[in-house]
Amino acid sequence: MQSAIIGGLFLLANLHFNHHKARGIINGGGSGNGGSGVSSQQHNIIKKFSPHPYFDFDVPRNITTRVGQTAFINCRVEQIGDKWVSWIRKRDLHILSAGMVVYTSDERYQVTRSEKSEVWTMQIKFAQQRDAGAYECQVNTVPKMSMTFQLNVVEAKALILGPTDIYVKIGSAVTLTCIITQGPHDLGTIYWYRGTNIIKPTETHPNETSIAYPPRISVDLKWTEALTSRLKILDAKLSDSGNYTCMPTSAEASSVMVHVLNEENPAAMQRGGTIARHNSTTCQLYLLAFLVILFSRVYRSSWHS
Fold first, then answer.
1. Could you give the percent of the chain with pLDDT greater than 70?
2. Domain that residue 88 falls in
3. Count of other CB atoms within 10 angstroms of residue 51
4. 271: helix, coil or strand?
5. pTM higher than 0.90, yes or no?
6. What are the annotated GO cellular component locations (predicted)?
7. 86: pLDDT confidence band, cut at 50, 70 and 90?
8. Is residue 111 within 8 Å of residue 87, measured between CB atoms?
9. Domain of residue 106, CATH code
10. Is 34 a domain residue?
11. In this structure, what DSSP letter does residue 249 have?
């Protein structure tokens, strides 16, 4: 009686699995981001009673990594027995590996599997945007089992909001805002530099009378829709002038120039630069007109002679 009940449960699980597979929800494991097409209850029944290999649908199947990092695509196959996993790059149907053997001249690709582990990992070192796309994990059963993974490779860049040259009056406050909007959620942190020197804000407390509160230089880091870091400088001094760089741990850096001016109108320098450029352009136009007139007179003189 017990064996009949177990057999019935296993039959129900397989019928459910085949039903979803026929509808295209599962292709030996399906595709998508975390969805399995099999309920956790049915999955547990298969896990307990199936004598055949089957995929673990709880692994991430939509993977995002940054340009230059190593991408890890993990395919977990339970009860694989004497079978093995092959990795296929779907855009060109290239067989990247079979078992632990890699079939590509691109040395960035590597397959890892710990002893007796159910996880077969495809590693792509120094990932590039051309590596993005679908990768298929296949098991050499008859018929074959396969599950598709989507790899996204993004190029994260930092951006300091505002102009690349910032002019402020001495004694005023300066706020530099750096954001990273593209890339995996684990974007690390952001460091600020003035020139080649890292900026290390002093952590203070209102009860510490020996140190001014709030601190003159502070950094605020937070994650909302993007990773955002704000560098705040109170009571700007002439010595605060310089090149400021927002240096993320996982993205390309961004820089601006801060000019602290000892005058009432910080915009004067910008206007002076604009006037100088305008005067330079005017001189160039006058010179060009003079050359055109000179060439015209020389040409007429040679033509009449």
1. 66
2. 52-154
3. 7
4. helix
5. no
6. neuron projection membrane
7. very high
8. yes
9. 2.60.40.10
10. no
11. S
